[in-house]
Amino acid sequence: MNDRYDVVIAGAGPAGAQCARDLAARGYDVVVLETEAEDEFPRQSNKSTAGTFHSMMAAFGIPDDVVMQYTDSVVLESPTEHYVRDQTGAVLEFADFKRYLVRDSRDDGAEYRFDARVTAPIMENGEIVGVTYNGDEAVYGDIVIDATGPSAPLAKKLGIVDLKRENHAIGIEYEFEGIDIDRPGFADLRDAMMLRLDHEIAPGGYSWIFHTGDDTAKVGLCYIQNGSHDQYSRDDFTIDDYLSHWLETDPRFRNAEPIEGKQHRGSAHIQEPGQLHTDRFMAIGDTVPSLDPLWGEGINKCMQSGRAAAATADSCLKHDGVEPTAENLAVYETLWHRDVAPNAKSRLLMTQLLYLAPNDRYDDLMRDLQRLDDDTLAKANKGNTRAIAKLLEPGDAPLLVDLAKQRLDLDLGSFF
User: Which CATH superfamily hosts domain 4-50+93-162+271-340?
Assistant: First the structure.
C-alpha cells in the first residue's frame, strides 16, 4: 500500500470528497482517510438535512438520482405568521449523495481508506508532512487537508482553529410519514423547504420541515447552547424533549409516524472563522465555521471550500519548485472569503440577531418580509449591512444592546 501522496485528506464528507474529486480529476495522487467502515458509510455521519439549491447541483454536477424531492419554494414561519419565497431547490438523500461523491472521485483515481481514524499530524522541522491514523499507521503528503468537521483533530493540534463550546450548535432530525403537508391555517408545504423561528420549539435556534414526497418530510431542530438559548430555554428540556413537544402540539404531526432508521443527529459551530491554513495544510468544510443566516446552505459551503482548497493545492503542485508554504497557500484564504463566506462578520451578526429576537419580533419579521421586495432578504442573507438595516425597526434598540452585551461577554471570556 502506498504511503506517499500529493494530497492527504482527512474526512470523506462533502468537503473532503469534493476536494478529492477535483484533485483526482486534475491527475493528482490523493488519498482520503475516513473513520467509518465502508459497508456502513455514511451511517454515523448521515447528519445533514440535505436541503440545497439548483445552483449547487449545477455547479458540482450532482445527478438527479440522489434527490428525494425537488422543491419550488422556501417558507419562513414564526409562531403565528409565515412568509413564502419562490426559490427552487432540492432535498437530497444525504447518504446517497455522499456515496456518489466517493464513487465519482474514485472513478478519477482517488484512493479511499475506510476504517481509518486520523489521530495526529506528523511533523518535521515544524511543518506537517503526514498524519497518523488508527494509532500507529501513517501516510504522507505534500499537502494535508482536515475535512473532519467539528472534531478537527489536525487543525486543533496545529492551532489553526479554535472551535468554542459556546458557539456549538446541536441538532436532531427524524424522517416522518403521515404528515399533513398542506394543513389549513399553515403555509402550504407541498414542494417546499420550511424553516421556523420559534423559541417554544427551538430556543436560540430554528426548526424545519423539508417535504420529501407524498406525506413524508424531514423534521428537526437545532440550537446553540449560548446566551440566546439560556434566555428562552426550559431547564428540564433536552433537544429530544423539544422535538417531542413540537410533534405533540403541532396539528400537522397528528398522524405522523417516524420512518425506521431515519434519525439523524449532528453538530456545527457558528462563529467567526479564524486561521484557515498554515505550511502544507488547509482546513475545509465544517472544520471552519460558515453558514448563511437564513438558509444555512451547509452542503454548498462545504463543497465550495473543498473546491477552493483543491484549486489552491493545484496552484502549488503544478509548478516544480513551488513549495506549499503558508504564503503560497494564502490563495485559499482569498478564495474562501470571496466565494465560500463573503461578508462573514456581518452575516454572523444577522444570525445572532435572529436567534436573540423574541417570538413576537419573529411575527413582525414575517410581516415585514411580506411588504419588502425579495432582493432585501437575499441581500441581507449575504451580509449586506444596508439590507440588514431595512429589516430592523425602532423598537429593536434593546435587542441590539443585548447583542452587544453578548458579544462583549464572549470576547472577554476568550480574553481571560
Answer: FAD/NAD(P)-binding domain (3.50.50.60)
